[in-house]
Write a structure and sequence with these properties.
The complex is a heterodimer. Chain A has a six-stranded mixed sheet, with helices on both faces. In chain A, strands 8-10-9-12-13 form a five-stranded mixed sheet, with helices on both faces. A five-stranded parallel sheet of chain A has the order 14-15-16-18-17, with helices on both faces. In chain A, helix 3 runs parallel beside helix 4, helix 4 runs parallel beside helix 5 and helix 9 packs across helix 12. By secondary structure, chain A is α/β, with parallel strands linked by helices. Chain A folds into three domains: 209 residues, 3-Layer(aba) Sandwich (Rossmann fold), CATH 3.40.50.970; 103 residues, Rossmann fold, CATH 3.40.50; 172 residues, Thiamin diphosphate (ThDP)-binding fold, Pyr/PP domains (Rossmann fold, 3-Layer(aba) Sandwich). By secondary structure, chain B is of the alpha/beta class. Chain B is 40% helix and 22% strand. In chain B, strand 4, helix 2 and strand 5 form a beta-alpha-beta unit. The two termini of chain B are 17 Å apart. Classes of the chains: A alpha/beta, B alpha/beta. At the A-B interface, strand 7, helix 9 and helix 12 of A face helix 1, strand 2, helix 2, strand 5 and helix 3 of B. Strand 7 of chain A pairs antiparallel with strand 2 of chain B. The complex binds thiamine diphosphate and iron/sulfur cluster. The site of thiamine diphosphate has 25 residues of chain A, from helix 4 and helix 15.
């Protein structure tokens, strides 16, 4: 079969389809979004029934995937790294229940924070949950690992995490496919207690998970994804995980003189590490993300001083690795090059021309300017976060999805006279509804602006779970109908918007204002 | 054979369609390739780039090392300069001349020109006006690609075939238009290059 030119994300999606996937569950998030989108496109074109509709958030995605696994079928769940925080309750407990149908959990990390608030490393979550991790170094491995990951999950009876980073997710290369497997038949666990985590049962399940750890390690030690390549120069032994392996080998095109342990499966294959520690003077750890492996080795008595990595500045402590970091670390010659000319200026992203968020901020800013220091605007996560930048400079906080409403409430509780929350429609249904209920239950003096563009704009315009339902949701949560307003964010309605925002900021209770106009990008895509 | 290319521009300009044609041609010739793209936040009018690597041997890194790129192919002049530290001393810079100004501290025209003048190997052309003359600004990207064809390490005919395959489902007229755009770009590059090359 000829090779397909696929993004890392697409390779994962194709592998899942070929492995007999019955459903993907996900909430959009860079750099994981294209996995689900690929499956949606493929499913549209084929007769095969694969669930692929977006979930409302990462937790609902994880739980639905676990339900599909409960019913014996293979499920894929995908999210960006911070999504794992949202899914964490279900995720950690899914290791205790275990699985029936294979469950592959893709966590897409974003070292360097290209599109994120932090660069947390999902391998810690897998370690916390005590489940195996697969970490590909390239697109073909991403395919192979996901394809085999479902089987591994079924054999080990736990979810398996596939951990990728932005660079792999969004880089394209040729990928060879394997044979297509049929979907699993509906079937259930023979143990009726497996998924009932009452304390008495949970203790038994937890012990089972602990007892399985030695087996997970044995699988790692024998995995083809972990490879020891013996070198000739014993000064260094290099442990390179995932995509970091590429940056090493890029610098040694004719072969690396040092021994290399290429890590693609966890738990960390300790017998290889011990062998390397015996044979080599120093151990170098190259890993994209946090110093996860490095920390573990640093903990070994007597090893600490000879482990080189992010923690002691051998390579940078933060951010994505690249070939230049590795060259510098090993003192390899760099290439002569040009200076960056000083005419080159930063070009930050900005809200599209014609975006409704612009009109919303223009109106809000006018009212906030009058209230002065008595008012603060709590932003949230989405295109409208760009309202922080000039010309708007409109928001004073942006933390995690849904935090706008609850932070506004907390600040109002503390005595802030005018607390405003600005949140997008998709973020509202992701995590803002419970926040709003808290505010309604105390009739907190906050003004919530749900800037509704009827799409999930920032991640490329996916369907938004609350489209057409926002007023009903707010009323259902108990918002007073007299303080719920829908506006049309256009220049010609500026004065009307200013009036309504001012009126509701002056109202000492919960009000919700919904400026609604479709995202111009989504609209343009529909017309194409 | 090995060609390392930085493709750059501003989010929304469509640098990925250029990469797609080169990638298609490379894969069709059984070359190895890796192409790292930028998705996400910066696609909203920020600076975007793609590292495109083609080789007849396996490629490890998705990212090009500093000083190793053979070509910078840019849809925007200031954006072409952003990646100069990655360009090899012998490398070529091929860029659209027309600024896209969506920021308030965009450099003065003269300063920008002076910085571009300092790059020894370059092809600078106004792709939009060439595309307009051909009948559609929408083929600006392909004019740009045409101007880069002498530096790709892939035969011109193979790039033409890549265009045929990629635009096939849009009909013969669109294929022809894009082929003319490719040729128009190449013609400018041929004119600007020293004969010895
Ligand atoms: C927990 C979590 N999941 C996903 C994301 C990725 N993400 C950032 S913004 C966004 C979409 C927000 O959509 P919406 O609130 O409708 O605002 P819009 O971008 O459309 O203006 C998503 C999914 C994230 N940052 N955090
Ligand atoms: S993508 Fe849509 S929501 Fe985002 S800035 Fe552009 S128009 Fe606004």
């Amino acid at each position: 079969m000829s090779k397909l030119l696929l993004l890392g994300d697409e390779a994962i999606a194709q592998a899942a389809l070929d492995a007999g996937l019955s459903g993907v569950y996900a909430y959009p998030g860079t750099p994981s979004t294209e996995i689900t989108e690929y499956i949606q496109n493929k499913t549209e074109q084929s007769a095969a029934k694969v669930h692929c509709q977006w979930s409302t958030n990462e937790k609902t995605a994880m739980e639905a995937a676990l339900g599909m696994s409960f019913a014996g079928k293979r499920a894929l769940v995908c999210m960006k790294h911070v999504g794992v925080n949202v899914a964490a309750d279900a995720f950690i407990n899914s290791a205790i229940t275990g699985v029936v149908g294979g469950l592959v959990f893709v966590a897409a990390d974003d070292p360097s924070m290209h599109s994120s608030q932090n660069e947390q490393d999902s391998r810690f979550y897998a370690d916390f949950a005590m489940i195996p991790v697969l970490e590909p170094s390239n697109q073909q491995e991403a395919y192979d690992m996901v394809y085999q990951g479902f089987k591994l999950s079924e054999e080990l009876e736990v979810p398996v995490m596939v951990r990728i980073t932005t660079r792999l997710a969004h880089s394209r290369s040729g990928v060879a496919r394997k044979a297509e497997c049929p979907q699993n038949e509906l079937h259930f666990s023979e143990d009726p207690k497996q998924f009932v985590l009452l304390p008495a049962i949970a203790r038994v399940r937890y012990q089972k998970l602990l007892d399985a750890q030695a087996g997970f390690l044995a699988r790692s030690e024998s995995s083809a994804f972990n490879r020891y390549e013996a070198g000739t120069d014993p000064r260094y032994g290099i442990i390179a995980s995932g995509i970091a392996y590429n940056y090493l080998m890029e610098n040694f095109p004719d072969g690396c003189p040092y021994s290399v342990l290429k890590v693609g499966q966890y738990p960390l294959p300790m017998s290889f590490v011990s062998k390397m520690a015996e044979e080599c003077a120093s151990l170098v750890v190259l890993e994209d993300g946090y110093p996860f492996i490095e920390q573990r080795l640093n903990g070994l008595p007597g090893q600490g001083s000879r482990v080189l990595g992010r923690l002691n500045g051998f390579v940078p402590r933060t951010g994505e690795l690249n070939p230049d970091h590795v060259a510098k670390a090993f003192g390899l010659p760099s290439y002569e090059t040009f200076e960056l000319p000083d005419v080159v200026q930063m070009r930050p992203p900005s809200l599209c021309a014609g975006c409704g968020h612009r009109d919303m901020y223009d109106a809000l800013n006018e009212v906030v300017a009058q209230k002065g220091l008595d008012s603060k605007v709590f932003g949230d996560i989405g295109c409208y976060t760009l309202g922080y930048l000039p010309p708007f400079k409109a928001i004073h906080a942006c933390v995690d999805m849904g935090a706008s409403i609850t932070m506004a409430k907390g600040a109002a509780d503390a005595g802030l006279p005018y607390a405003v929350a600005v949140i997008g429609d998709s973020t509202f249904t992701h995590s803002g509804m419970t926040s709003l209920l808290d505010a309604v239950n105390e009739n907190s003096p906050i003004t919530v602006i749900i800037s509704d563009n009827e799409t999930t704009g920032m991640t490329g315009g996916q369907a938004s779970a609350g489209t057409g339902k926002l007023e009903a949701i707010c009323l259902g949560l108990g918002v007073d109908p007299a303080h719920l307003h829908v506006l049309s964010p256009l220049k010609k309605h500026h004065d009307e918007m200013v009036r309504v925002i001012r009126q509701e900021m002056d109202y000492p209770g919960v009000s919700v204002i919904i400026p609604r106009r479709e995202c111009v990008q989504t609209l343009a895509r529909k017309k194409r | 054979m090995k060609t390392d290319i930085f493709i750059s521009g501003v989010g929304g300009q469509g640098i990925l369609s250029i990469a797609a044609v080169i990638g298609e041609a490379a894969l069709h010739q059984d070359l190895y390739m890796k192409q790292a793209e930028v998705h996400g936040m910066s696609q909203r009018g920020g600076d975007v780039q793609s590292n495109l690597r083609i080789s007849d041997k396996p490629i490890y890194s998705d990212l090009i090392a500093k000083g190793k790129a053979d070509l910078i192919l840019s849809l925007e002049p200031m954006e072409s300069l952003r990646y100069l530290p990655w360009l090899s001393k012998e490398g070529w810079l091929v860029t659209n001349s027309k600024p896209l100004i969506n920021m308030n501290n965009y450099p003065e025209e003269a300063a920008l020109k002076e910085a571009l003048d300092r790059v020894p190997n370059k092809v600078i052309l106004d792709v939009e006006s060439i595309a307009k003359d051909l009948g559609s600004v929408r083929v600006s990207n392909i004019v740009m690609l045409g101007a880069a064809t002498p530096f790709l390490g892939i035969a011109y005919e193979e790039i033409e075939n890549g265009i045929r395959r990629i635009f096939d489902r849009k009909g013969q007229a669109i294929v022809e238009l894009n082929l003319r755009a490719l040729a128009a770009g190449k013609e400018v590059a041929d004119r600007m290059m020293p004969k010895s090359l």
